[in-house]
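Exercise 7b. C-alpha cells:
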C-alpha cells in the first residue's frame, strides 16, 4: 500500500512508481494506492494516468489525515493477511525488496519488518537542549551546534538561547512527555510489513496530531514497544537481506549511519542525510543513535 499525499503533487509519486517499476518486489502481491489529501477527481487525474499500467487498486480517503491514521483506515477495508505500508516519499532501492521483508517474518519471531528504524527520542533531545544530562548530552560536542545543525536541516531560523529554552521547556512539559526517552527504539513508518489485523489493534490509539504520531511511533506504548512486550520485536531489513532486532539496528549502514549503503527503501529523511553537510550528518546520526553514531564525513 503506497500512500499518495495530494499536497505533495506528482513528483514524489513519480519517484516511487519509477522505483517500483525498476525493482521487482520478488513475491506475489497486490498494489494498493491510498490517495490522501486530494481535493477532487481533477487533482487525481495526473496520478491515475501515471498509475494506469500498474493494475493497482485504489482507496481514496474522503478527508486528509496523518499517515498512520490513513494506514489504519485503509487497512480496515482490505481482506489481506499482511500489508506492507510505503509512505509518500519512499523510493525502492533494491530488487526483491518485498521478498526480503516477507522472509524476515517467516519464523514468527518478529512482529513486523521495516526498511528503517531508529533509537531517536524527541523528549531526550529536548532535555539535552535544556541542559540536563543524558546520552545526547554526552554524545553531542555542543548543544548549540546540534541545535544549529537541526534547524539548518529543517530550513527554520535558529532561535536565540532564551527563546529556544522556553520553547523546548513547553514542548517537554506538554506533548513531549508521552514520548519515550533515548533509546526509544522504533520502527520507522516509511516502509514496513505487518499482519493487517495485528496492525489495526496496535494502532488503535487515535493519530490525529503530529504528537499522536510520535507517540505511536516512539512513545512508551508505541507500535514497536507493544510488539516487543508481546515477545515479537520488529526487525529492520537491509538491502543485503540482513534482519536485525532493535538492539542491533545501529550496526547496519541503513538509517543515518555511514553512507546508508545498505538502505532498502529511501525517503525524504534519508535523502536529507545523504545531501547534508558533515556537521549536519553528525547531528542526525547522533540524534538517531547517540554514542553509537557512525556518520560519514
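Sequence design result:
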Amino acid at each position: 500500500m503506497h500512500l499518495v499525499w495530494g499536497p505533495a503533487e506528482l513528483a514524489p509519486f513519480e519517484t516511487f512508481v519509477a522505483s517500483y517499476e525498476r525493482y521487482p518486489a520478488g513475491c506475489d502481491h497486490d498494489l494498493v494506492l491510498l490517495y490522501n489529501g486530494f481535493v477532487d477527481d481533477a487533482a487525481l487525474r495526473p496520478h491515475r494516468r501515471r498509475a494506469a499500467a500498474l493494475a493497482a487498486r485504489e482507496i481514496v480517503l474522503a478527508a486528509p489525515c496523518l499517515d498512520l491514521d490513513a494506514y489504519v483506515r485503509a487497512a480496515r477495508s482490505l481482506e489481506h493477511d499482511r500489508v506492507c505500508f510505503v509512505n509518500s516519499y519512499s523510493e525502492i532501492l533494491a530488487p526483491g525488496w518485498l521478498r526480503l521483508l516477507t522472509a524476515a517474518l517467516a519464523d514468527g519471531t518478529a512482529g513486523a519488518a521495516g526498511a528503517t528504524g531508529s533509537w531517536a527520542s524527541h523528549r531526550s533531545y529536548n532535555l539535552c537542549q535544556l541542559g540536563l544530562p543524558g546520552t545526547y548530552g554526552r554524545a553531542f560536542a555542543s548543544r548549540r551546534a546540534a541545535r544549529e545543525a537541526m534547524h539548518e536541516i529543517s530550513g527554520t531560523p535558529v532561535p536565540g538561547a532564551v527563546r529556544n529554552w522556553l520553547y523546548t521547556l513547553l514542548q517537554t512539559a506538554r506533548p513531549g512527555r508521552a514520548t519515550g526517552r533515548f533509546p526509544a527504539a522504533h520502527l520507522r513508518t516509511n516502509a514496513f510489513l505487518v499482519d493487517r489485523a495485528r496492525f489495526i489493534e496496535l494502532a488503535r490509539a487515535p493519530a490525529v496530531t503530529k504528537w499522536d504520531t510520535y507517540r505511536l511511533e516512539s512513545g512508551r506504548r508505541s507500535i514497536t514497544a507493544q510488539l516487543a512486550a508481546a515477545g515479537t520485536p520488529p526487525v529492520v531489513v537491509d538491502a543485503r537481506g540482513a534482519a536485525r532486532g532493535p538492539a542491533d539496528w545501529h550496526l547496519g549502514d541503513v538509517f543515518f549511519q555511514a553512507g546508508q549503503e545498505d538502505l532498502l527503501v529511501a525517503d525524504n529523511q534519508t535523502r536529507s542525510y545523504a545531501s547534508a553537510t558533515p556537521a549536519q550528518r553528525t547531528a542526525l546520526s547522533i540524534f538517531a543513535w547517540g554514542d553509537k553514531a557512525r556518520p560519514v564525513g
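Instructor comment: The mean pLDDT is 93. The chain has one domain: 2-119+183-287.
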